[in-house]
TrEMBL record:
Belongs to the bacterial solute-binding protein 5 family. This is Solute-binding protein family 5 domain-containing protein. It comes from Bradyrhizobium valentinum. Pfam families: SBP_bac_5. Keywords: Signal, Transport.
Length: 541
């Protein structure tokens, strides 16, 4: 069901083509049909409007469009595709912060706040409001409480400094290559301090419960309707400080079934499907060349890998892990599962990440080599039973599991594929309950040390899904977290890749392509490091 209307009725409405581009300017009431409207579909939903604590992809997409950040990631046109842009490492644009500079041997960042900005409440946007944002991130439960101390070395609120109403500074113990990226994260979005305080309680001093269903920020759009399981409607923020968006209204339709999303596209009832994993590679391939539709595809930083739990036998044996890497049938998975919408993983960091070196991996498909390593590990007398967990509904992982199952059985495993709901998979993955699983990871900050820390540092217990622990690697990560010399930092990243490849910490599979299907007339589509859409950049070509 789609809320209180049946799937059949929903698709019948879609057949009328009523959700189309409407180029006239807004002249009528809030839901008049003469508002330039972009209608999209997703298979997600919003769990919270709190940028520090959300978990769903749907929440991130909305928050990236309703909340401003201090800085933003820039995007440059893709060669040969003038309607498509992509972020580049080290390219930033102003947001709430109009300009910025480094002082104190690059240990202090000074940001000038745009003058004259106001929250929807009418209260001023100033350096005090920005400090509240950072104080909240450091002290409230959520993502930034982990990122601030670990990535940039901020452990105390007094490291965030208000110099005057329009000047905000961050004082670090050492320079940070990640600092500007941290300021661009939507998880670190600007909130109205006084509005938050109105809804705070003794048990919830940061108003996280209130923010689950309410907003208190400034951005190019504001939510005007949130009907879970049906649709979300955003409208352009009146008097917004930035360029007025072409699309004054965004209608986001919930369509949990991929077949429904395809039908809506073909009937021109929607203009785009948004969100990661929203279209399977097979269907992307089938939609190439479809009348009135465009499939856009760019290399992405999303890593898909076979996670081996090093706390469970036989995966505590490095030779077993190496054998598994030689048995990975990636040569078959890319054409038969990904249909070309992916690239072979040759390093535990993404090919689009600074410091990536694809020449270091010794692994290529070689069953003979894999069998030899299994014998050296003392396994060869009988099959080793093992469970391989995958999420239900993500077709590439379900299909890849079958290919992996066949190859692992050739080298001495007896593999049973366990299909789990997303909630069950996440719980077992975080608690170390899997033996083998197919995992995805994308680093919101495209920095190699950020990526290495969360996936492989022994202290990152919640995100280091394989329970990998290596004191030498920990030291390389720690030493390079805030290394100021780029050459030394990249040398450390190279050494880290060598260690992880030698230890076969992951079963290397593939890097996803970032792919979307849109109406052919749609321009301004851009891929940012977090891979979520910014609707205010889009327009008709």
């Amino acid at each position: 069901m789609f809320g209180n209307q049946s799937r059949r009725n929903f698709l019948k409405l879609a057949a009328s083509g009523s959700a189309m581009f409407t180029p006239d300017l807004f002249t009528g009431p809030a839901h008049a049909q003469d508002v330039p409207t972009l209608t999209v579909a997703w298979g997600a939903d919003i769990d919270s409007f709190d940028p520090a604590q959300f978990k769903s992809d749907g929440a991130y997409i909305v928050q990236a469009n309703i909340y401003d950040t201090v800085l933003g990631w820039g995007a440059e046109p893709v060669t040969g595709s003038p309607n498509l842009s992509i972020s580049k490492p080290g390219v930033f644009i102003g947001g709430i912060g109009e300009s910025w500079k480094f002082e104190n041997d690059d240990k202090t960042l000074v940001v000038k706040i745009r003058q004259g900005l106001k929250f929807p409440s009418g209260r001023p946007v100033n350096a005090q409001a920005v400090k509240y944002l950072f104080d909240r991130g450091l002290q409230s439960p959520g993502y930034m409480r982990l990122i601030f101390p670990t990535m940039i070395g901020v452990t105390q609120a007094d490291q965030f400094e208000v110099r005057d109403d329009s000047t905000f500074a961050i004082n670090l113990p050492a320079p940070s290559a990640m600092l500007l990226d941290v300021l661009a994260l939507s998880n670190n979005a600007l909130l109205d301090p006084d509005e938050i305080k109105l809804h705070a309680t003794a048990d919830d001093p940061w108003a996280a419960q209130w923010l689950k269903r309410n907003t208190a920020g400034l951005g190019p759009y504001k939510p005007v309707s949130n009907n879970p399981g049906v649709e979300v409607i955003l409208e352009a923020t009146p008097g917004y400080w930035g360029p007025a968006p072409y699309f004054r209204r965004i209608v986001i339709k919930y369509a949990s079934n991929e077949a429904d999303r395809i039908l809506l596209l073909k009937r021109k009832a929607i203009d785009m499907v948004v969100g990661p994993n929203s279209m399977s590679p097979k269907n992307l391939k089938n939609l190439e060349g479809a009348p009135g539709l465009t499939v856009v595809s760019l290399p992405d930083t999303n890593c898909n890998f076979l996670c081996m739990n090093l706390k469970k036998k036989p995966f505590d044996n490095v030779k077993v892990r190496q054998a598994i890497n030689y048995a990975m049938p990636i040569h078959a998975i890319i054409p038969n599962v990904l249909y070309g919408y992916g690239e072979q993983m040759k390093s535990p960091i993404a090919a689009q990440t600074p410091g990536y070196d694809g020449s270091l991996s010794p692994y290529k498909y070689d069953v003979g080599k894999a069998k030899s390593l299994m014998a050296e590990a003392g396994h060869g007398s009988g099959p080793i039973p093992v469970k391989l967990a995958v999420r239900v509904g993500y077709a590439p992982h379900e299909q890849a599991a079958i290919w992996i199952q066949r190859e692992l059985e050739k080298i001495g495993f007896q593999v049973s594929i366990e299909k789990e709901t997303d909630a069950t998979f996440r719980q077992l993955s975080s608690s170390g309950g899997h033996e083998l699983s197919i995992e995805s990871w994308q680093s919101w900050i495209n920095d190699p040390v950020y990526h290495l820390y969360w996936n492989f540092h022994s202290k990152a217990t919640a995100t280091n899904k394989g329970a990998y622990a290596n004191q030498v690697l920990d030291k390389i990560i720690d030493d390079n977290m805030r290394e100021a010399d780029p050459g030394k930092r990249m040398a450390g990243v190279k050494e880290a890749q060598k260690i992880l490849l030698d230890d076969a910490a992951w079963g290397l599979l593939w890097y996803d392509n970032w792919a979307r299907v849109t109406r052919s007339e749609l321009a301004g589509v851009a891929k940012y490091w977090d891979s979520f859409e910014r609707f205010n950049k889009m327009k008709l070509a």
